[in-house]
Amino acid sequence: MKAFEYATPETKEQAVSLLGASWGQAEILAGGTDLLALMKDDVVAPKRLVNIKEIKDLKGVTSSAEGFRIGALTTLGDLADNANVLKEYPALADALNEAASPQIRNLATLAGNLCQRPRCWYFRNGLGLLPKSEGGKDLVAEGENRYHAILGNDGPAKFVSPSTIVPALIAYGAKLRLVGPRGKREVPLEKFYAIPATETEREHDLRPNEIVTEVIIPPAHGVMAAHYEIRQKATFDWPLAVAAVALTMNGSRVESARVVMGYVAPVPWISPEAEQALVGQPINAETAQKAADAALGNAKPLSQNAYKVQLARVAVKRAILKAGGAA
Amino acid sequence: MPDYSWPAAEQRSLIGKRISRVDAPLKVSGRAKYTYDVTRPGMLFGKILRSPHAKARIVSIDISAAEKMPGVKAVHIIQQPGSTIQWAGDEVVAVAAVDEPTAEDAVRAIKVEYQPLPHMVSDAEPPAGAGEAAGPLGEDDIWDALDQMPPAEVAKQLGQYGVSFKVTEDLLEDMKKYDVPSEVIEAARKATYHEVKEGGARSSYQKAVEQTQGDPDKAFAEADVVSEGVYGLPVITHCCLESHGSTVEWPDKDHLFVHISTQNVSGIAGQMAEPLKTPAANIHIHQDHIGGGFGSKFAADRWDITAARLSQKAGGKAVRMMLERDAELEVAGARPSAYARVKVAAKKDGTITGWQSQSWGTGGPGGGGMPPIPYIFTIPNLRKQHTAIRNNIGPARAWRAPNHPQAALITMAALEDTAAKLNMDPLEFFLKNLDITGPRRDVYREEFGVAADLMGWKEKWHPRGQNISGNIGRGVGLSLHTWGGRGHESHCDFTLHPDGSVDIKMGSQDLGTGTRTCILIVAAETLGVPLEAIKLQIGDTMYPSSGGSGGSTTIGGVSSSTRRAAVDARDALFAKVAPSLSAQAGDLECVNGTVRVKSDPSRSLSWKQACAKLGAMPLTIRGNNPDKSKPPDLTNSGVGGVQMAEVEVDTDTGIVKVKKMVAVQDCGLIIDLKTAESQCYGALIMGISYSLYEEKIMDRTSGRMLNPDMQFYRLAGISDIPQLVVHMMTGKGYDERGVVGLGEPPVISPGAAISNAVANAIGVRVPFLPLTPDRVLAALSQKAGA
Hints:
The complex is a heterodimer of chains A (327) and B (786).
Chain A: E1 5-7, H1 12-18, E2 26-29, H2 35-40, E3 48-51, E4 61-64, E5 67-71, H3 76-81, H4 83-88, H5 90-98, H6 102-105, H7 110-115, H8 121-124, H9 139-142, H10 166-171, E6 175-180, E7 183-188, H11 189-192, E8 211-217, E9 223-230, E10 241-250, E11 253-262, E12 269-270, H12 272-278, H13 285-295, H14 306-323
Parallel strand pairs in A: 1-3, 2-3
Antiparallel strand pairs in A: 4-5, 5-8, 6-7, 6-8, 9-10, 10-11, 11-12
Helix pairs in contact in A: 12-13, 13-14
Chain B: H1 24-28, E1 44-50, E2 56-62, H2 64-68, E3 72-77, E4 84-85, E5 91-97, H3 100-109, E6 111-116, H4 139-148, H5 151-161, H6 169-177, H7 182-190, E7 205-207, E8 211-213, H8 216-222, E9 225-233, E10 236-237, E11 245-252, E12 255-260, H9 265-276, E13 283-286, H10 302-313, E14 319-322, H11 325-331, E15 334-335, E16 338-346, E17 352-362, E18 381-389, H12 404-421, H13 426-432, H14 441-455, H15 457-460, E19 468-469, E20 472-483, E21 490-496, E22 502-506, H16 515-527, E23 534-538, H17 554-577, E24 588-591, E25 594-597, E26 600-606, H18 607-612, E27 619-625, E28 639-650, E29 655-666, H19 673-692, E30 723-729, H20 750-762, H21 773-785
Parallel strand pairs in B: 1-14, 12-13, 17-18, 22-23, 29-30
Antiparallel strand pairs in B: 1-5, 2-4, 2-6, 3-5, 7-18, 8-18, 9-16, 10-15, 11-12, 11-14, 16-17, 19-20, 20-28, 21-22, 21-27, 24-25, 25-26, 28-29
Helix pairs in contact in B: 5-7, 12-20, 16-17, 19-20
């Protein structure tokens, strides 16, 4: 780990002023569960760490007519235990409880989870986010890509989006509030993520001198939602596929649907194809399978990860059935 | 002659009982000091610059900037310009500094220019036609060849290809020392020297000569059933939770003091002596506790020698050099891979008649040998051939039961496939063929009976693929294994003090297996005193030497040397005490903290009173193993074990869950039943890990290991561990064999048993471990397509 400056601002404005105008200058330190590992492994080497944990209005949760507001510094553990989450957003509660380990959930913050860096083993070993050999070969395409993207992988980015919680949040229609030097802005979470085309870009729309202040989830009365995650190990393992589904029903038929996958593409992958396949249908094994097939219809596996198409299909199907109360 | 024999069952109050390990309170409270915990006054921190290339020539090294950095106390070039790197992560330069960040900064300031060379990190099946290792032999090649082919063949190759290095008298002497046949030594002496250009003249493939027994062609021609398959398991690492390393200092210029994480306390000084040009007698080695070794910690490694050199340059100050997690997984040891295409011939009634295999695998730059296949079963007609792949993945080291888990998987999977082809219950099939398993066949038979009951095999076994409901397939599988486990050379000093205290000093080590506890049990049993009455000191070269803890040799060695010393000490005490009890020494016994007359227990002295009769001087006895002058032999060799696994497989996702495992194991006379069972539990957990998760994953382009961490080098977590049932075979037929080691055997079978259970569950063989979802789904789709 290289030496760095350490700043502990007490307000959002101070924090923003301490961040750099481009990536690589400063990093935001919240729970630290991802950032410190990256620094110890020399994958990132910021000149300054901005510890935002002392900023009071980034903490806490409140419910109002606009929905459920979650302060950026809320830990995954606190959120998982929140009565409102358990009652109103069961898919989010499931996603939170399956994330990492209890120790990590007690430290990791929600905004940190949303902004964590990819788990791609080329990236984590310092070979780059869009790793190329000296001769210009695409290391992932030519190499060990069993855990890489099956969708959205046409460009140089072949890693998968790392958050297991984001698909559920997107399915619930969550929005992010950000603050930067030019003030506040609000971004729907589904528009927040981007596929980088160069090494210097990040995987999201956060600017280098912005911080996430809160996450707002609209009320979910009448929404039937579920999260389903396929991991090889029972606990504390990166998933191979994640799916989150939110349905509104008209009687026994689907009125509207959101189908979001994680760990399949460099961004959380929303499937309008699966959503269309569900609208107007009852939820049963057959309709769930059709929607799952539609969700993966455009999948283009790499040399070693065709099995992930099957796993993602199963995750979508099981999430739909679980949301519909059929599983 | 004193009677050194193990006490009979009815006389044992401690041996064979379930006794908690004596160091448990220290360990669970965090007070146990591991090598990683050692801090020394003024200690410096060592860090190593490692090669990012899998194969490269070092062109130049510039350490000037690092040397000038404040806080940097020593810089040492490990491999000079001109050296060739053979694997990524290999050590190039080391630094010692006042703290870790400074040492890391210094490492970053070192400039090394490499000329990358073509590397190979694959262990894929050798292409047809590849295989002849043309070109001159290197020193490693000769040793590898000696493991793989008859001496005449090695001599022939030396004559034909020559050598790529200058053969020295030292090497020829070494060969003599290791009983290399004289024809090979002569051939090496006469071999022509050829200079080898970089890139290597020799093929990456070393094809061993084919071995044949009986008449395999006839056996296959006459077989009722021939089963064919491909099986294998990849390179895995040791992944010791305490990484390799040491803290090394020179208290004065002639003496070295080393805290090291090692399985081989008594052997380390000798290994450090030569490179450091310091007499072994001046090297003091110490270790209290070790966080895992599994066969990878017998040597003073290059980083340990380097730590000593850094300390020397820094005026003798202690240098802590413990490997980082990534280096631990990249360079500190790996288990060789093994794969084979196998054909098995059998009769309709299940009798195995023939075996044919083409196997391959890698142990890194050295290639490696053939696992002992077919394993356990002596198949009358066979033909087998092995190709070792030499590549740039880093060196192999002994991994708990070297070569046996590989041999068990390949053999037991091929045989289970044969049983499936015969529509036979594999238990019935294996029982039918036990006659060709050699001396432990009756043990296996008895163990299979016990295991089948504990597993509920009869109720749970269904023909392949016939126990699938919905998307869940259920299945059971089995395997069997063997190991030697004779006790190693061990010496101890056993002292009775006139105040009644007792101490034992032995240069052994406790790998976490319960060695301390077992030594104390033997001593306390012999003296009739509680465990707490004895002070045991191990883990130091100040104490009598005792063998390295490898090959399941420790328990037999330390229990035998301790028993002999304890009996001699007890009898010497009896001789001193006898007059005051008006008895003959031979009529005395020590029971429950007293020394008393056997025929009249009312005539007794307390232990303390008895020891007071020793006079002013303590009594010290040296105990030895082996010791032909003090029969009987207290240790033995050869164990058998069987295991059964029950699994559930999600046929939609390919995810395997182990639901239950049963291990039935013999190991002669058991000193501590509890720690013996713990060995088996640990082995089953380790076995589940390598069956389902572990693999050293190499990137072919960069030549780097991609998972040198704990997030993608997966180990089973607590939720992945199912019900484990362990049954130790004890009593008549077992106890009288003496003490036999247990470290290796129970880790051999899990891979085969779990693979067989998965085949039974889903109706098709998943050829390779680990049984990951991609492999399981690929096998299922092949079955659907078939």
